[in-house]
Amino acid sequence: MTVPAPGLVRPRTRRRLLAAGRPGWSAAVLVVAAVIASPVVAVAVGALLQGGLQLPGGVGGMVATTLALTVLVALGTSVLGTGLAWLVSVHEFPGRRVLSWLLVLPLAVPAYILGFVFLSTFDYAGPVQTGLRSVLGDDLGALPVRSLGGATIVLVLTLYPYVYLLVRAAFSDLAPTAYDAARTLGASPARAFRTVLLPLARPSLAAGLALVTMEVLTDFATVQYFNVRTVSVGVYLVWKGSFDVASAVSLASLVLLFAVAVLAAERALRGDARYHQRGGRGRGLERRRLTGGRAVAATGACVTVAALAFGLPVLRLVTWAAAAVAEENPFTDTRFADHLTSSVLVAAIAATTCVLVSVVLAHALRLGGGPWVRAAAQVTTFGYAVPGAVVGIGVLALFSAADRLLQALGREDGTGILVTGSVLGILLAYVVRFTAPAYQAVDASFARIPPTVSASALTLGAGPGRLLGRVHLPLARSGVAVALTLVIVDAVKELPLVLLLRPFGFTTLSVWVYELASENFWERAALPALLIVLVAVVPVALTFRNPATRHAR
Amino acid sequence: MMAGVMSTSETVARVATEPALRLRGACKAYGAHDAVRAVDLEIAAGEVLTLIGPSGCGKSTLLRLAAGLERPDAGSVELGGREVAGSRWVPPEKRRVGLVFQDHALFPHLDVATNVAFGLDRLPRAQRGPRVAEVLDLVGLGHVRDRHPHELSGGEQQRVALARALAPCPSLVLLDEPFSSLDENLRAQVRADTLAAIRATGSAAMVVTHDQTEALSLGDRLAVMRDGVVEQVGAPTAVYETPANRFVATFMGDADFLPAHVQRALLTCEIGVVSTVPGWGDSDVHVEVMLRPHEVALRAEPTSTAVVERVEYHGAFVLHEVRLASGRTVRSWQQHGVRLEVGTAVDVTVVPGSRPVLLSGDTALTAPPA
Question: SS3 for A479?
Fold first, then answer.
């Protein structure tokens, strides 16, 4: 970055943390990395042992589709996410406070729910096309709703909050001085945005985009609604169709390549640049009050996005749910409480575990420990890049290895897990998958704690434990809150891992919705879908009601 | 803890006799870059040592080695006679060394009093409050104890950082360019206050700086570093007046060098006889003489071949640059009232009583070369 940023100091020690390192904490990082890498390693070893990739026909098309979808969604989410973050961070307009958190709510609507609502609305038999035909006549051809374009729209609308949240957090942690300096140097708001805010928010934008593209690579349910065959869909279909591990593993290795490319791009985009605020947290930017048409346009843009991605779909779900309730009372169905409990318990345990692990990683890295520890921490972020189906197969492979081991040790029925599946497997898979987003968020917060602050605490007699409790955690709490939110939402929404690993009789809300929606029981799927949305809304809402977070703004 | 088993009198006796910091052959490399190369350095109890050098010379690394933020690749570090790095390793939190950073590194989420109390966790709870008040008074900030760091000015933050470092009564305080983020007009005052506070607690201190004026005025002794090596350690007057080599001579102040000749204890160069050199009676050698601008006297002399080439007004003094017949230049500080126009022919002499430094090659000579 060539623009000098007043108000920001690049400490002379920016690359040197506390290189002395701590053996215990470093070892913890290595253990975490080993656990998180284990399913992927299991799959990779399996692939190598079977020799050569066994790829089904049509792989080229799948790769091209995956590439196109990833690029389109990344473009869409970065424009929408960054644009909205800029709008609510730098400007004041009617409804800004409410809208700034309403815009996060789409995070609570999983793509497979928005997808079926979108289809039911815009498909040939849906109200939109029916309405168009009644106005324009029957010769109107079918709109290409079930297409790459349709899938892109749905994915952008569900995934843009990742970019929005992280970029907005970066903006709110900025000291106003840099932006003000640029403005007083004669830069227009647009230029100040481009030359000052965007470069400073670049690490956050990169992190957000990485999350988005990983989601795209991992999704197979939504894109299937749209007849879009990505490589991940291939993995799932091959596995479900034939339980052919070899082919599924081969295809999965292709997805892995995509993921590696995305992570490399994220690193390049984030660059070496780490900027530290002078004197701690910034107080956010002074917002410019918009008036007249501009204010209306700003409010309108935010309302439109929030309505399309959240309001209207939820309204439609509510209508369906009401119809379903009128028909028969689904609440008397005990499956409701069962599935809800399963979802919430699994998500809460997974989120707590993932955030604990992330804090350990970030803290251990701040304590130093050298290239091995850094590499190990990097390994943990790859879990998110591995599609759910592959993590699932990896976990199954691990458990089967454990079975064989136990049988060799004389227990004939082994763990008994492989045949029936296990909640433990689901949790392990969740930790593998969701430590990455948690760590990204926690690490981003740690990166904004100047190394000199950590060094000061140590020399004042605080050991690693006290340094964590008194300094690192309080200063990284916004990252921890974001991490908890992300993992809970992710875990409640998660579908493929549960489908693969659930023990007999264990159903989460997401699986239930999926089963109902794939059989076009949209009205019956609406209520559990609404519950998923509701569960996912709670942590989102909590984050923004947290007085500490507001105080920091 | 060793200190725990010693009686108070023993501790005091040892602290008084042992150096607060002793580095022996300390080395530290980052990859292929040797940041610190076999440095030996001692800071006596209660002594203030200034460490200066160009950026990247390893002075901050030296400080980090003392604090325990880096582990030396070789050599040892002792604090108050206790080895903390070398054959054993004591982590920074067990060293109890005070540390003040350029960015002050206050804990932004804690108020001033809590910041200062952070290092007092070993003190009984009842004594913490009074101790916080005591050190805050020492730095003159008793009235801001409930504020948060972002509500303080840069100078106040610096003083809070100092109070925080001094609160646990460390026998050594390390300051990493503590004043460079402060306004110029604030700096002198904060510097004086800081020094007074450190003196008041009796702690030894190592102050890293890249500001020559600061280095000369601040400490009891001064260490000059270059490329990971300590080039010279000594009292500021000694380092300035008798630099060990050309680097130290030019780094610590303006200096011009002229070829010179010592014969029968008489030093002569282009501008004539410079001085006598006692003890060099038998010598007949060619050397270089270092002239600092305050040692060079000027007098308008129309017949002279030396001509004023540049005049720089500095307020109290005026710097004149004079080109000699040989084409070499020397600089001279003149009193405020003296304004010799550019082009004036001047007679150049050395201020009576000066004992200019002689160099052979890049090394200063303290005795006639053999």
Answer: helix
